[in-house]
Amino acid sequence: MKVLVLNCGSSSIKYQFIDTTLQVALAKGMVERIGMASAILTHQPHDRDKIKIVGEILDHTIAIEYVIAVLLSPNHGVIKDKKEIDAVGHRVVHGGETFSDSVLITDTVMKVLKDNIELAPLHNPPNIKGIEATRNHLPNVPQVSVFDTAFHSQMPPHAYLYGIPFELYKKYKIRRYGFHGTSHRYVSERAAKMLGKPFEKLKIITAHLGNGCSMAAIDQGKSVDTTMGFTPLEGLIMGTRSGDMDPSVILYIMGKEGLSLAEANTLLNKHSGLIGISGESSDMREIEEAVAEGNKKAKYAFDVFTYRIKKYVGSYTAAMGGLDALVFTGGIGENSVMVRKNVCLNLENLGITFDDIANNNVKGECAISTKESKVKVLRIPTNEELVIALDTEQIVNKQLTLNEATGVK
Ligand code: ADP
Fold it and tell me: Does residue 34 contact residue 407 with C-beta atoms inside 8 Å?
């Protein structure tokens, strides 16, 4: 099956056109600066050069029209007819308490997605816009929604409840949901394959470290805890987000600095984390360069970042009553030799014997612990788009079989 995978943000759309049989992206690209006069479409067919088109792209409907057009383009395209797009899979950030799995998009599903906007006001509206725009351009093509929250939907109440009045959970659905679920699921399943053991028999900690960062405790194939919570702000230090802290801090700052709710939100989400502590950058490569040059604040940022991860390795090992594998993924997890090393330093008591040489020479999916290490430390590149494409294929095939059985055309 050929699946168009879309990740629609407020001013950008990332896409991949995936052949699920070959498990390869035939083309991938991105539309940036949607709504602005100089929007940019970058497109990379798997067997030809990357191209860049600059022009006016006023909204998501026009952006998706461009994506389809470039997939069909005689010089840069990978298909000859729109009909070759068998299905579309969307990354949707928040499934709320309703969706514990990926789902075929129907009118009822759209209504629930709209009801969930309050839970993810920044993310869900552009996801919905993308689905509606796709419906306009490809009205007969089935669409599937794959949720960032779904993999964490089986967390037990002791992991998802906050210590606030229970009525507030009931009234406003304030609880921990967790995000990056598609990535945590993919890399933990791959880890089980690498270890040659059944997923259901393993205790795995996954660390997805990109611009957004989160960890998950995966026991017997299920996410039993994760660091992000009600929103993607909780947990680890991130490029621009604070992660865990005493909630009174924000109340105190709001009082002292006279910040509005919106300003406080921006402070925690956009000006905190690595950029906040270092004052230099939200980008780990630049933080590492600054550390190498002796920049003290950059060193604080780096140390707070890695120490927080290390603490969660310990707490999740305790939560699961043991550990078989620790997995690093995401832009930082896959590429930063220093972050992996600092997280794993002095964890021999937990059964981790780190292999410095392997850590310096990573390639593809590989182990960075010694052969003797009781707990395996793995580097696994994530592939969220492939998971979305495979889920989409499975759900669409199931629906087609159901239609056949019931005579629906
Ligand atoms: P997103 O969460 O937006 O998908 P990525 O997963 O691409 O982001 O991760 C981006 C982060 O990965 C940035 O902080 C970047 O500096 C970091 N990164 C990428 N390559 C390296 C590297 N070689 N060393 C250290 N950090 C890296």
Answer: no
